[in-house]
Design goal:
Order of helices and strands: HHHHHH
Number of strands: 0
Shape: elongated
Largest sheet: none
Helix content: over 70%
Structural class: mainly alpha
Length: 118
Amino acid sequence: MSAELDIVRVDEALLRFLVAARKTEPSSSSTTRRLILDTSIRLFAEEGYVASSMRMIANACGIRAPSIYEHFANKRELLFAAMTDVLGDFQAFIVEVVDADLEPGVQLHRLVGGHAAW
């Protein structure tokens, strides 16, 4: 199996994680960057990472394709931005639970429950 196929499989597994972790749809007040990011996650999940082009993402956002490049250099950068965003949300959840004034058993239960839910 080629290294390129392995990368595609890893990318697609990461995207399935991102879609599962993303809880909300973009709102009408989203910035263009946020709209591009959320739309790309959805398209990657529906069409697959390889099949989703920057032009497809732009069309789904209702913008011209060159506009995407003002926010993201390429599709891989979109993936990394999405991972950073979703993992940042998860980190914030962990910090919130750890910083809460809870009994250790309750704290552990919330962390494990939250992790399982993700």
